[in-house]
Automatic annotation (TrEMBL):
Keywords, in A-Z order: DNA-binding, Phosphoprotein, Transcription, Transcription regulation, Two-component regulatory system
Cited function: May play the central regulatory role in sporulation. It may be an element of the effector pathway responsible for the activation of sporulation genes in response to nutritional stress. Spo0A may act in concert with spo0H (a sigma factor) to control the expression of some genes that are critical to the sporulation process.
UniProt-recorded name of the protein: Stage 0 sporulation protein A homolog
Gene Ontology biological process terms in this record: regulation of DNA-templated transcription
DNA-binding region: 131-229
InterPro entries referenced in this protein's UniProt entry, alphabetically: CheY-like_superfamily, OmpR/PhoB-type_DNA-bd, Sig_transdc_resp-reg_C-effctor, Sig_transdc_resp-reg_receiver, WalR-like, WH-like_DNA-bd_sf
Organism: Aminipila butyrica
Length: 229
């Protein structure tokens, strides 16, 4: 049974989400402040973290950044009461895999949890001695080891950035709209959330040393979407 950690300071949200997690076959534990939350991460080793941004003690962005800097790769879905794009971008920049804006649909949250866990497992449990390498110029991706290098130097990507990069590399030359990328990479209906793709593309380009107006790797096709050169 997968264990989900809810780090959230609103008891009614913990109760609602926890109830639905149990009904969907998950075990859950919770913390109402950031300090206890990060303690439970290390002690309980959850399979996924639902992380609120506005928390007493230590906020969600600090927790996310601290875990990623320590090498903890546990999938994280940020929960934010703000629709401000800055909060979403910061969460993704610090290593979150996804985000939900309050008030959110419980059904959609369960779908995203399932999608994130499935993709995390697909990238974690690989058959031995079957490495798959994708390459373009100085960029190399080892899809089985979940490693990306640029000019021989490692590039640190979030899980979703890695999945997006792999998909574009595996389909080089093909143009995909934002909706198509959401469907293919995120795996569920993200109606109205196409900015998610733009944010991930922006950070991928930055980490690959590519300016927004360059066509070195990821190209923007005006009015259509994105493709890998």
């Amino acid at each position: 049974m997968k264990k989900i950690l809810i780090i959230e300071d609103e008891p009614n949200i913990i109760e609602l989400v926890g109830y639905n997690l149990k009904n969907n076959g998950y075990e859950y534990i919770s913390a109402e402040d950031g300090i206890m939350g990060i303690t439970l991460v290390h002690r309980e080793k959850p399979d996924l973290i639902l992380l609120d941004i506005m928390l007493p003690g230590k906020n969600g962005h600090e927790i996310c950044r601290e875990l990623r800097e320590d090498g903890n790769k546990t999938p994280i879905i940020m929960l934010t009461a703000k629709s401000d794009e800055v909060d979403k971008i910061l969460g993704l920049e610090f290593g979150a895999d996804d985000y939900m804006t309050k008030p959110f649909s419980i059904r959609e949250l369960m779908a995203r949890i399932k999608a994130v866990l499935r993709r995390y497992e697909e990238n974690t449990f690989r058959p031995p001695n079957s490495e798959h390498i994708l390459g373009l110029d100085h960029l190399q991706i080892n899809t089985d080891r979940h490693e990306v290098t640029l000019g021989g130097k490692p590039v640190e990507l979030t899980l979703k950035e890695f999945e997006l990069l792999c998909f574009l590399m595996e389909n080089r030359g093909h143009v995909f709209s934002r909706d198509q990328l959401l469907d293919k990479v995120w795996g569920i209906d993200y109606a109205g959330e196409t900015r998610t793709v733009d944010v991930h593309i922006r950070y991928l380009r930055k980490k690959l040393g590519q300016d927004d107006n360059e066509d070195k790797y990821i190209q923007t096709i005006r009015g259509k979407g994105y493709k890998m050169r």
